Structure formats: structure tokens, C-alpha cells
Amino acid sequence: QVQLQESGPGLVKPSQTLSLTCTVSGASITTNYYYWSWIRQPPGKGLEWMGSIAYSGNTYSSPSLKSRTSISRDTSANQFTLQLSAVAPEDTDVYYCARSLDVASNFGSWGQGTQVTVSS
User: E strands along 35-113, which residues?
Assistant: First the structure.
């Protein structure tokens, strides 16, 4: 059974770069044909897909966040990482990592989520 666990700072200052890591157990992030994604949920709003990294290493980003988002992976540690640059208070959200067989939908396995607050 796959398990995903987010980790990272709970508080980030405006204009800094947020870095979050998702550690995966029970499955390899290089296994065909899974996608590993970052998703966030603003308070009182719906889920927003941010980007994904495929089993192949190819990356995909939401057009609205593409200029600020970078997703990478460490296959030896079975982890993938989100970097979101130039954060602002509106980036205060709960951030989730998830697994799917599609790039940006049908997420079957989720991490528990981590709260990130952007504040000076």
C-alpha cells in the first residue's frame, strides 16, 4: 500500500521560495505509469493542481503557476519536491502530494497535507 508524506516549513516569509518534499513508501516513484503531483487547497476553496512529475521524470505545471513552480525528484530517496518561488500571503494553503495514473486528475492516493503560512 502506497503512503505519501509531505514535509517542509510551516511558515515562509513573503518573496521567499517554498520547498516541500513528499516521501513515498510502498511504491517506487519510477514505476510505470504513475504521476506524482502537488495540489493545494486555499481556505474555504477547492483543490488546485499545481504540477506533476511522471514516472519517466517528465514534469508538468499548471499554466497559472508555471513561472513560479519547479518539481524535481530524488529517485534514490524515493522523494519528489516542489519549489514555489516568490511566495505571497495568497499562497497560504494546505499543500498535498498525491499519486495518479493521469497528469492532473483521478488522484487515488494522498498525503495527509501540510499547512503552509506565508507571513512576515
Answer: 35-41, 48-54, 59-61, 69-74, 79-84, 93-100, 107-110
